[in-house]
Protein: Amidohydrolase
Amino acid sequence: MRTRLVLLSARLLDPVTGAFLPETALAVTGGLISALGDDRAVRAIADPATTVIDLKGAVVTPGLVDGHLHPVTGAELTHGLDLSACGDLDQVREALARAVRDLAPGTWLHGWGLDPNVFGGHPVGTAPFDAVLDGVPALILLFDAHSALASRRALQIAGVDGPRTFDQASAEVVCDASARPTGLLLEDAACELVERVAPQPTRAERRARLAEALRGMAASGLTGGHVMDANGDSLALYAELDAADELPVRLRVAPWCQPGTGADGIRALIAQQGTGGALWRTAGVKLFMDGTIDNGTAWLERPDCHGESTAAFWPDPDEYTRVIGELHRAGVPTATHAIGDAAVRHVLDSVEKAQAAGAPGAGVRHRVEHIETVPDDTLRRFAELGVAASMQPTHCCDFTRADHTDNWSRRLGEERASRAWRCRDLWDSGANVVLGSDWPIAPYPPLGVMAGARHRRPSRNLALPPHGPEQALTALEALQGMTVNTAWAAGEEHEAGRLAVGHRADLTVFAENPLTTAATDLAELPVLLTVLDGRPTHRAPAL
Structure:
């Protein structure tokens, strides 16, 4: 088998020790690192068909992997009016008014990224925008993607004129005292009432948007992602891009298991494991134990300041426990969305019960996603149970404030808000901390995620104080959170996450050492080269 790629004059950074390897070059054969050595020895391995790149002292790390993202959903949701930069209601109204002026009569307005903090503690709803959206069908996704605002015209078209009951216990059409919808829709089941009557992009448009988003991810230094959904025809889209050699990011996909999934559905999820293509595969199952703190649908051990966030996503939490046990026995790893302390505790209890039942599920690696606030007695259980702590530090950076005046912190109160995103405490307790973006909830560039884990400051204004600086990770830990630890969480530590012969040739190349670049400068560190399966997916003009 011929040598596919040779990289010369490199500084090869070991993500385990944080030191540079003694070698200065590497070769790739068949998608794997086949040799490490000095420039002269490795150059001799190349043949006329080998791609040879002189890195001129650039720094090479194992390819960065986002531990939690939603590529298809993100590609769809991030088209339309971006409201993420709006800091108050006036700015939102101005943005909506500009968008409405450009709309043809009857055309839907789609918005995304709305921060509930713009409401300043007042109820979240469409009332402040009714005059601007008069007669306009509009659907605006809040930043958490677990809630949306539907204009009066959109609700009318969808036939939503009062409360509804859903299988998802925390889903709700929020209504006022007169049982009239306020426009706020909580969780997928409620949002879908309006989404299904709104115009949808063509399949060709969706495929093109997905391909563009994945190319952007590769250019940002990502070589892989743990995808936390398989909704709609997303698997077919991945398969098409893979077959056309247009998949620039290696994807590990976990389809959803929702409340009400019957025995046949569970069997189908188990049978689906391992299916996929050259650069993507189905691995694991994604479940939800709660919603979000910002919209009052998390599951907390004590209610929030509005008396909300008191219920699990599964109407019968014991049924969730039973499903975890069945998947564990089948050898299927699970990833559960659990934001509130009660939700996290129930997931850990369920995993512990499944493990206590013994083989054949021994060695199955489960994970908890988000973990936004937990008490001290929960920390040690991650390491004891071998459960990965999958976290998104940029959510803390950009959606909360150091002084706890934000919506998330106000809802929780001072005690629980002071336990925000306990990355440091979980790491020190022995947990395997995996870092990710949860794109489209937050931007996907991995350097921004790593930077946020270190500085914990709002990315739009790094001069502002950090939220919980004592929970910051070191530069090396942040790198490990997107290399070594993502590989471990996927059960791939023997083939990924290291610069070693026989490991995958998924590589990220930086202009300088990310470990010595200041946290506040890290997001701007140039990515010179991204390599997936031994083939460049991004190459800066400088190379």
